[in-house]
Amino acid sequence: RDQLYVRIHPSGDSSFSLWEGGSITAASSGTALDVTIAQGDWFSRWVLEIVDRDAAPSTVSLDAAALTEETDAALVASAGCDACWHFDAATGTLLVSLAAPGTLHAE
């Protein structure tokens, strides 16, 4: 098992299937973004790099459970936490580390 690093440029709806049977679907509207991860046979961790955000989200959750905000971007980017996020205001980038599939909501 391994981790998958995904860069998302939110703009409307998009989806793609992974070679190992999983899939990722993204839907954005205004400041809201939903990313659904369906687990396949290989990846068990995901790091999402969501770019082009105008402001920090007020809420980040996975299947309605709030994720922990981290001050250390490197920890999140390396999948060093199971359900956490970091926002870089200088670049407009939201990093999210997940150890479980489901639907991520950021707004």
Could you describe the 3D structure shown?
By secondary structure, the protein is mostly beta strands. It has one helix at residues 73-77, and strands at residues 2-8, 13-17, 23-29, 32-38, 43-50, 60-62, 65-66, 68-69, 83-88, 93-98, 102-106. The strands form two sheets. The chain has a six-stranded antiparallel β-sheet with strand order 2-3-4-11-6-7, with no helix packed on it. A five-stranded mixed β-sheet has the order 1-5-10-9-8. It is globular.
List keywords for this structure.
107 residues; mainly beta; six-stranded antiparallel beta sheet; 1 helix; 11 strands; 5% helix; 54% strand; globular
Please count the beta strands (DSSP E, at least 2 residues each): 11
Distance between termini? 30 Å
Please count the helical segments. 1
Radius of gyration: 13 Å
General form: globular
Decide which structural class fits the backbone.
mainly beta
Could you state the order of secondary-structure elements as H and E?
Answer: EEEEEEEEHEEE
Poorly predicted parts: none
Largest sheet: 6 strands, antiparallel
Concise description?
By secondary structure, the chain is mainly beta. 5% of the residues lie in helices and 54% in strands.
Q: Can you lay out the helices and strands and say which pair or pack?
A:
Elements: E1 2-8, E2 13-17, E3 23-29, E4 32-38, E5 43-50, E6 60-62, E7 65-66, E8 68-69, H1 73-77, E9 83-88, E10 93-98, E11 102-106
Parallel strand pairs: 1-5, 8-9
Antiparallel strand pairs: 2-3, 3-4, 4-11, 5-10, 6-7, 6-11, 9-10
